[in-house]
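Input record (Table S2, row 197):
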Amino acid sequence: MKALRIIGAGGHGRVLADIAEAMGYRDIAFLDAAYPDFARSGAWDVIGTPADIDESEYALGVGNNQTRIGLLASLPCDLVTLIHPSASVSPHAEIGAGSVICAGAVVGAFAKLGQGCVVNTGASVDHDCVLADGVHISPGARLGGGVFIGARTWVGIGAVVREYKSIGADAMIGAGAAVTRDVADGTRMGGVPAKEF
Ligand SMILES: CC(C)(COP(=O)(O)OP(=O)(O)OC[C@H]1O[C@@H](n2cnc3c(N)ncnc32)[C@H](O)[C@@H]1OP(=O)(O)O)[C@@H](O)C(=O)NCCC(=O)NCCS
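Output record (coenzyme A complex):
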């Protein structure tokens, strides 16, 4: 395995480093212009900024969906896909470059994830779901089969989305929400059943 450089040395970056270590990467370090004073973050060194791209492999350790997708479009390097060994990912699922599947997450058969998506700890994305680029499914959230989620949308901790519902781009689904109807672009939803708020 090549060296892995994670862009973003904050909490989400440390999660990625931990996943990479579990996958067998041994030479892991961060690049981050926002933390110029960091020498270390968690168990790993901060060795420079995203301007220091070389022949290593790269991952995007930035939690904010808009920032992550902006970096994805602008970086002159290919991004790896990180999948924790304890995650269950169907061999019939497609996972885009720069996406991350965290510990205990499940991605079902024929699900399609775009680039730079995050399926966080213990979340599940069931069969035939489609996630556009930059979607974040937070810890413990659950998508029924055939759900569509538009670009850069954030589904909060423990939220539930009923099967075959469609959520637009740049939407926010609050923690613990139960989405029972389609959601338009840019809408913030919360509660059970979820309402705009
Ligand atoms: C929806 C959310 C973005 C709103 O954040 P916010 O704008 O800071 O909202 P506030 O905390 O100021 O709360 C505003 C009101 O909405 C309510 N509210 C906040 N989040 C809510 C939620 N998830 N469901 C229902 N009501 C919620 C609050 O109780 C408050 O009501 P009040 O005015 O009657 O007291 C946020 O609460 C949330 O759910 N974030 C997701 C967190 C998450 O999943 N993190 C993952 C990290 S990996």
